[in-house]
Every structure is written in C-alpha cells, then in structure tokens.
Amino acid sequence: MANTDVLAAGPADRDLIARLAFGSMAAQTLRAAVRLRVVELIGGTVRPAAEVAADAGAGAQPMTRLLRALAGLGLLKEHAPRSFSVTPAGALLAPGHPDSLRSFVRMFTEPAIVRAWEHLDDSVRTGEITFDAVFGTDFFSHLAQDPELSAEFNAAMSQAVAETAAALPHAFDFGRFATVTDVGGGDGTLLAGVLRAHPGVSGVVFDTPEGLAEAPRTVERHGLEGRCSLVAGDFFRSVPAGSELYLIKSVLHDWSDEQVVTILRHCREALKPGGHVLIVEPVLPEVVDTHTEADVSDGGVTYLSDLNMMVNIGGRERTREEFEDLCRHAGLSVTSVTPLADAAPYSLIEAVAA
To answer: What is the pLDDT of residue 342?
Structure first.
C-alpha cells in the first residue's frame, strides 16, 4: 500500500486543496475587479451594487455576484444586502493609492503570464520554457513587440519594488559609497529611494531602452536630475564602468546560471578597486519549512515565483549556496547574506572581488 493511502486527512486538509484548486479563479476575480474599476467606483463610501453596476456598464445581478465574491476574498465588505465598501486590502487595487498593486495584479493575471502556466507539467518533464512554445518568442521579446503590455509590465515592476525601495536605503550603508549603478533598474524607483535617503550619493540607472521608458519621470518627480543619470544598454554585453557599488534587484532570478555569471562578471569587471556588488533577491532555504518565520510570512509565493521563472522566462530562485557558487564563477566572493527587514522575502547578498 502506498504511503499516501494511510495518511489521515481532516477537513482542514480538504479545505486547503479546495482553496488551491480555486486559486486561478480568485486571480481572475481580481482581474475583473481591476478591469471594471470596482474599487474606484465604490470609493471611500458604502455603495449599492446597482449603482456600481450602472457606472461600470454592467448588469446589477452579475455585479452583485462579483462584489460578493470580492467580499468573500476580503477585498470588500457587505454592510447590508447588496451594499459594499472597500477594505484596506481592496484599496490597494485603486490606481491612486500610494501603495497600489493595480498594475501588478493586471500583469500577473495577464494571458501573457497565465497561458504558459497551463503547460507547467511540460516544463517539469522537459525543463524547457513553455512561454516560447506558446507565443513563438521569448518573454522579453514579446514585451518589446507590445508597447502597451511593456508599459504595464514596467508599472507592475515599479509597484512590486516600492516596498523594497522604502526598506532598502535604511538597511544597508549606502553612505560609504559615492556612486551606485542600479543594474536592470527599470524606472528608477529603487535607486531614487536610495539617493533620497543618502544625499551624498550619486547614481546610474542602467537598463534596456524599453526598461528605462518611465525612468525620466521618476528622476524628475524626485528632483534627482543632477544626481542620477540614465544609461541604456545590454548587461549581457557590459555594464557602465566606474561605480563603487553595483546594485542588482530581482534581475538574476530571470536568467539561467550561465547568464547570471555573465551579468555578475560584467559587474566585477566594471567595479572600482574596493567596490562591492549588492544583490537583492529571495534566498531559498535549503529545506522548505513552513514552520519558519520566512516561509510562513511568504506563504509559498517565492516557490510559485520559482515555477513562474521556469515556465515563462527560464530563470529560477536560488539558495545561498547557489548564489555563492555563481558569484565565485564570476570572480566575486560573498561576504554576507542578510534578510531584508520589512521587505520579505528579500535578502541582501553582498559580494566583493575575489
């Protein structure tokens, strides 16, 4: 008899399976709420579903059903039959919220992300990226061919980095460096947070032309025109030389081990004497343990991100040992790995020339 035949399962175990099986439906409920502007239409008051439906150009009964589903997910509250308000979590779907995750939700429920997941089992069998087979090109080339989707992706990444941009400047001593280059820095949100907290530091945001599309607005919005320059390029060819610190956040997990070594080697070659490389990525434990604080707070999202890298892009999340090995092959030596407080599941991996 197989071991699974003798494991006792209770109601909580059945509920867990049911919640997970309904997970894609919950995601599409979020997507519908964003596309129908539900949170904006309700605003900061209690509104009848019929009014929300009329403003959204939808039927009253279907809208009521959607709003009740959102209430069941904790994003709305039903005060009286068919009258709803927005919860603090639901407010994060509003575009004007300072911590908005609207674009993040739109991007990660977008067919361009979701469709390859339908073939996860194929990726597991073959190790191949299923996105390329589904769409006929790789993920980043697909983005480059769709300006609207590329803009949504950039906005999603900006929203995803906001929490780290608030925590990172106070968790690492940037003040000891005169110059910082943010490799793959996108719209500059992360580097702007660093420069605002450390007035003596100047910086460079380095990314593809598409990645830098919104960066001028970020620099201008934070008044950093004299301290932050933007450089377009390809980190597989080189990175701008001469900085004392090279910052790399949520970039390495997009790529294969060989490609990561190439990126890190270019940072090593560009470093000033005595310079450092600071990698900001999740660091997987050697063993999954849902009783540890990190895995409980993460809720398994980092492991889902690892699978997302596999099916859509070809990268992966990594353990400390794996980061140390990649750095070693790039001519770098890891000196410390520190969890980033207030921005789980990220850690700070500091490295110097070996």
So the answer is: 83
Say how far apart CA 281 and CA 261 lie, in whole Å. Answer: 15
Between CA 224 and CA 50 the distance in angstroms is: 47
What CA–CA distance (Å, rounded) separates 248 from 319?
Answer: 16
CB 302 within 8 A of CB 284: yes
> pLDDT averaged over the chain?
93
pLDDT band at residue 296 using 50, 70 and 90 as cut-offs: very low
- From the number of C-beta atoms within 10 Å of its C-beta (0-12, 13-18, 19+), residue 323 rates as buried
The reply to whether 253 belongs to the active site is yes
Peptide bond preceding 285: is omega within 30 degrees of 0, i.e. cis? no
Name the strand (E) or helix (H) holding 181.
strand 179-183
Please write the tens of the pLDDT for every residue from 273-288. 999 999 999 999 988 8
Whole-angstrom distance, CA of residue 260 vs CA of residue 253: 8
Say how far apart CA 66 and CA 29 lie, in whole Å.
7
Residue 250 CB contacts under 8 Å (≥ 6 apart), including other chains: 157, 160, 161, 184, 280, 281
Place of tokens 């009521």: 64
84-126 pLDDT, tens digit each: 999 999 999 999 898 899 999 999 999 989 999 999 999 999 9
Q: What is the residue type of 301? A: V
CA distances (Å), origin 190, targets 185, 256, 260: 7, 24, 21
Catalytic hit among 142, 198, 253, 276: 253
Both tokens of 80, joined, read: 């009286």
Distance from CA of residue 255 to its chain's centroid? 15
